[in-house]
Amino acid sequence: MKKFSYILIALSLMIASSALCQDVRYNFDKASDFSKFKTYKWVTIKGAQQPDELTDKQLKDTIDAELAKKGLTKVDSDTADLFIGYQTAIGSEKQVTSFSTDMGPGWGYGRGWYGGGMGMGTTNSTTSTIYTGQLVLDMYNSADKDLVWRGTVSKTLDPKAKPDKRQKNMNKAMAKLLKNYPPPVKS
Fold first, then answer.
1. How far apart are alpha carbons 9 and 111 in whole angstroms?
2. Domains of the chain
3. What is the pTM of this model?
4. How far is CA 64 from CA 5, 39, 47, 126, in A?
5. Residue span of the signal peptide, if any (predicted)?
6. pLDDT tens across 86-136, in order?
């Protein structure tokens, strides 16, 4: 029974840690010289899904802080080197978690010639709603309006989470997303 408890705890931790992982992907134009980009301006991507105003401000402030670490300066003029925009998507899905125990004095599969005895077993199930959020960050060369860098971060999140938890998740996600910006120069 102790062994079963340890297995159950380990399985629960694996499920919980995989649910908290952030999936980050990026792509970029290999012909672009990213060392020339020093300034950026926020733009709205037409037709893109946007969050509420408060979340929009939090996202932009968090991204601004990360871009400042990369040496980029935010400006309000159209002479910026980069135009930056983002879009979000939030969906939900039901998750069912079940486990069963089989214990007791039974040594067979039930009545009849399969064996005798009565075994005991229980199955426990729980359901929960998982909110899956995704943010796509696009950077366009302002000179020719070409997409030069795109990053996507996916994270399991709870829209009902407390503000501190949401901000912590945003900070972590944007740091991971912009870790590889500017892209490494290969000689």
1. 34
2. 23-177 (3.30.160.670)
3. 0.69
4. 46, 11, 23, 40
5. 1-21
6. 998 877 666 666 555 555 555 555 555 455 555 556 666 666 665 567 889
